Amino acid sequence: MSTTNLVVTMKILAIVSQKGGSGKTTLAVHLATAAAAAGYNVAVIDLDPQATATKWGDRREADTPEVVSGQAVRLPALINPAQANGADLLVLDTAPNADQIASLAARAADLVLIPCRPAKFDLEAIETTLLLVQTAHKPAYVVLNAVPPKGSIVEEATAGLVSSGAKVAPHQLTQRAAFTHAVIDGRTAQEFEPRGKAAREVDALYVWMCGLVDMPTSGRKGKVA
Predict the structure, then answer these.
(1) pTM over 0.85
(2) Averaged in consecutive runs of 10 residues, what is the pLDDT profile of the chain (225 residues)?
(3) Which domains does the chain have, with CATH numbers?
């Protein structure tokens, strides 16, 4: 089906976790890049004072996705111009230990993703984030990140999260070298190793995300994810 005349209402994806080191920026830039590669106009709004996504964007040679550094209190002033300028997807990369930022981002979003490592301390710490996101009344899913390539830890972590009332994404990001090496020069795993396992994991997560926000996997530029 042709996508030349595709009309897309701008979608907003918030990446939220009160736990530092959970992989928020990794998830944000990889999903944003997947959407850009699929033909969408995409921007990452970096709400983290550490500006990790912004620094990644500065190292990046490609023009897309655009990365904008901003403050949570100015979120409406960032969202409205983006929509007016034809953005299809905004990805909000938030800061850890920042209730106000996370809450504002979650309330603005169509979908909230909560990255979490499948480790005991991380799983115990996620309760605060889950409670915060519940107040936004938006669809929210935990995405297991940096998963060991072997073992039953995914099943165990998923069971624990579900028993606590969380929804868990059916796709995970495994701890792979491609995720680490790619971001050094502003790329993503899809670009660093297009046919690698990390790229396939991101693609699966992207397609699943599109289904949740009612966004076709290919955008107005006619590319295929």
Answers:
(1) yes
(2) 53 94 95 97 95 96 94 85 92 89 92 94 90 92 94 90 94 96 96 97 98 91 43
(3) 11-212 (3.40.50.300)
